[in-house]
Specification:
globular; mainly alpha
Length: 393
Amino acid sequence: MTYGQPGPGNGGGGPGPGRPGGPSWGPPPPPPGWGGPPPWGWGWPPPAPKPGVVPLRPLQAGDLFGGVFATMRRYPGALFGVVAVVYGAYLVVAAGVLYGGWYAQRNAIDRLFGTSADGAPPTSELTSVLVTSGLAWLAVMALALVANAAVAVACTTVTREAVLGRPARFGQVLRATRRFPTVVGIQLLSGLTVMIPIALLFLFMVLATVALLGRGDVGPWLTLLPLLFLGAAVVSVWLWVRLALATPAAVFEGQGPVAAIRRSTRLVRDDWWRTFGLLLLAGLMAMGVSMAAQIVTGAFQGPVAPLDIDPETGRFGSAEARAVFTDILTASAIGFVVGSVVQVAAMILTHLTAALVYVDLRIRKEGLADALIAGLGQGARTPEGPPAPGEGD
């Protein structure tokens, strides 16, 4: 069973590529009964088949979020296990990068802590520490981008199997994360696109401010700033929603970054408000979990004691400085671990929601449910069967 992009031809109930008898994710066959009675006769239509976590029909909000939480319950190993492996590897490598940065500058850091409180530290040592810290921070951010892309692939791959009730094995999902370069490209292109209105606003503000300062009158310009910021924010949100389904398009259909972004814009067209509402609801759920975690974390983090400076020498003790530094690192580590867990939960929730929104829009706009139902009726592979070629990658 494949999740291919719709192509020419009827293809609605035809076999999937590479395996006879499997349902195709192409366009549906012509609707039966045009101009005549419905195929089920008089009375209520039969309920839609539900081989997986959602019924194969246009989804309501309850169906969609029920499918999200059903996916979490039915596939805990493949979902949370793979995400734990990805983020565990990220934390280990990131910790190694940070330790390497500290080890390279440990002598300079020791000298900086031992410097008199009244005297400025040597410029060369301070510059060296700042440069090393900046490079380490950039490396950690790049690693986070890769980890987030791998998690997005894992969540979407699990959803792909969950829609039809097929097994999503740990190894299968872990191998699928190798497609993270495509999702990294999507994230970078989407981020740059969403930032275009903000960048243009900033450039316009700089040029306008310079011109108005030359004339000596900036009063009217300041009153327009809130409206300009609001307009740029609205455009950025509009672009973000249009591009929000690019990752599911890449994973379900094997699209490249640019093609997946175009596919997302076509699917969201004419359904922007509904897509925005569903994604916003998922974001609010994730925000509620994050706020609860911050409250719990804050209860275990006390204030850090200030450094006591000797009034005679104007210096503070090196041991005292190390103790304060250790307290800060401990509190930061606790916040980082809890924040990472919350971020993982929020990412899983939002990625699963986006994947099911993608499926819902294809059902509504491309008759995907009819194609899947027809394929299932022709003898689709049972959940115990082997994966189709390319599906376990």
